[in-house]
């Protein structure tokens, strides 16, 4: 699964093959085609594993928060930090977004991932605010890594304070 994700990051979704993945994983091409009936099943499994790992990391970070203020700090850490919003993770996420847009079965992986994130946030806020925060995190993570002048932690904290009231 890791080799699949690595090849996604290196080559992109449109240039990934069983052969490239097998070579990167150090396994025979026959093993790849024996265990996975096609590239889509391999990608689905890799994306599912990735989404669950990201959800686990997210939940673990949020579980350290004891109140709403600490939850907001955790969110800022996730947007600005280098543990969850790494360049590698973001590249995998963007590949998943693009691929899921054309593959309804993969949309379920994303929808389940969003639900898990929102459920974690609901320990601190109501469901509508949790959904808003989830969208904010997604969008601000993208802005943080691509903006020429990303917002400061303090500015992000102020924005979060407005969202959570």
TrEMBL record:
Keywords: DNA-binding
Pfam families linked to this entry: TetR_C_31, TetR_N
Listed PROSITE patterns: HTH_TETR_2 (PS50977)
Superkingdom in the source lineage: Bacteria
Single annotated GO MF: DNA binding
InterPro entries: Homeodomain-like_sf, HTH_TetR, Tet_transcr_reg_TetR-rel_C_sf, TetR_C_31
UniProt KW DNA-binding keyword: yes
DNA-binding span(s): 17-36
HTH tetR-type domain: residues covered: 1-54
Name of the protein: TetR family transcriptional regulator
Species name: Buttiauxella brennerae ATCC 51605
